[in-house]
């Protein structure tokens, strides 16, 4: 077997597992922002700081929108720590956010 193909397959499997972990993390955050949970104070804090409703969505209210903010907060530290910054990571990040927003909706509707 060609070693380059094996590296690509391993990289894709690692990327898929990473996106799944991100989606579980974001959906867990979304559930923890509800009344009576650990982070129930977060939505009221964001409402006081950010007046526009659409700008508040990525912080706590929309799992599809949360993919951009929390996806970046989980993607970039991991990638820069493991690989350093290279411009090739920008399209990978865009793919990560697109896949993550779809997967977040899929998981949230099933839970």
Task: Describe this structure as you would to a colleague.
With 111 residues, the chain is mainly alpha-helical. Helix content is 82%, strand content 0%. The N and C termini lie far apart (41 Å). The protein contains five helices and no strands. The protein has one domain. Helix 1 (3-32) crosses helix 5 (89-110) and helix 3 packs across helix 4 (63-83). The longest helix is centred in the first third of the chain and has 30 residues, at 3-32. The protein has helices spanning 3-32, 41-49, 53-61, 63-83, 89-110. The mean pLDDT is 93.
Domain count: the total is 1
Largest sheet: none
User: How far is the first residue's CA from the last residue's CA?
Assistant: 41 Å
Secondary-structure element order, N to C: HHHHH
What is the general shape? Answer: elongated
The value of Rg in angstroms is 16 Å
Uncertain regions spanning at least 5 consecutive residues: none
Question: So how many helices?
Answer: 5
């Amino acid at each position: 077997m060609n070693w380059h193909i094996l590296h690509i397959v391993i990289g894709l499997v690692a990327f898929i597992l990473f996106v799944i972990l991100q989606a579980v993390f974001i959906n867990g955050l979304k559930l923890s922002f509800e009344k009576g949970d650990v982070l129930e104070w977060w939505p009221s804090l964001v409402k006081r700081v950010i007046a526009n409703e659409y700008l508040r969505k990525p912080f706590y209210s929309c799992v599809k929108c949360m993919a951009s903010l929390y996806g970046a907060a989980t993607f970039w530290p991991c990638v820069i720590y493991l690989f350093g910054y290279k411009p090739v990571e920008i399209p990978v990040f865009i793919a990560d956010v697109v896949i993550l927003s779809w997967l977040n909706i899929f998981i949230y509707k099933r839970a």
